[in-house]
Design a protein that fits this description.
The protein is mainly α. It contains nine helices and five strands. A three-stranded parallel sheet has the order 1-2-4. Strands 3-5 form a two-stranded antiparallel ribbon. α2 crosses α7.
């Protein structure tokens, strides 16, 4: 991302490390670049699943003593909100410059339209396969959030509390992503077939090019 683009850059979040991706995005939006991140549920976090689950449970216990529903901290469960909070911590969001930078950022689970028809980029400096040492443990945000939520819901049932927490849209996103992949595969097959037909037509008419050139066409 060394160059500035007037159009928003669409990043595919799959396989990226959470902290590294957040740091790069925060620098870009502060410099004026518009960023869109899709498939936030496929972002990776370094460290074992159990360690990250304990950290998330520790975060759940942090609350404001006076009116926590208004003062926070707010424990976001959605993967896009988890990435947003990580980016917000790297941006001076209480200043006009930082607030304007966060306005240039859009985060989504899955690949909603119109971004399913746009070219998606990756950030090599944040890819897990390039930046994480082979053999190191990692987990995915989607699995991490959902499994932590299930465990927390079980605790809530045992304690007979009257509220429920958790990201409840995993099945919805998975179903929409499955539909999108089927449509994308069909589009790719039609595109490849059209390219082959065009190449065949050009090859069949190549013999007549010499005659047309001789006639002055």
């Amino acid at each position: 991302m060394a160059t500035f683009s007037s159009t928003p850059i669409v990043i595919d979040g799959k396989g990226h490390l959470l902290g590294r991706l957040a740091s790069i995005i925060s620098k870009q939006i502060l410099s004026g670049q518009k960023i869109v991140v899709v498939r936030c549920e496929e972002i990776n976090i370094s460290g074992s699943f159990f360690r990250n689950k304990l950290r998330y449970h520790n975060f759940l216990h942090k609350r404001h003593i006076v009116n926590p529903s208004r003062s926070g901290p707010f424990h976001h469960r959605a993967p896009s909100k988890i990435l947003y909070r990580a980016i917000r911590g790297m941006v001076p969001h209480k200043t006009p410059r930082g607030a304007a930078a966060l306005e240039r950022l859009k985060l989504f689970e899955g690949v909603p339209p119109p971004y399913d028809r746009k070219k998606r980029m990756v950030v090599p400096e944040a890819l897990r396969v390039l930046r994480l040492k082979p053999g190191r443990k990692y987990c995915t945000v989607k699995v991490w959030v959902c499994c932590v939520t299930v465990r927390h819901c079980l605790n809530l049932v045992v304690q007979r509390l009257s509220h429920e927490v958790g990201w409840g849209y995993k099945d919805v996103v998975d179903r929409l992503e499955e539909k999108r992949k089927i449509k994308a595969q069909a589009f790719h097959e039609r595109k490849v077939a059209a390219i082959k037909l065009r190449q065949k037509a050009v090859a069949d008419s190549a013999a007549s090019f010499g005659q047309l050139t001789a006639l002055g066409f």
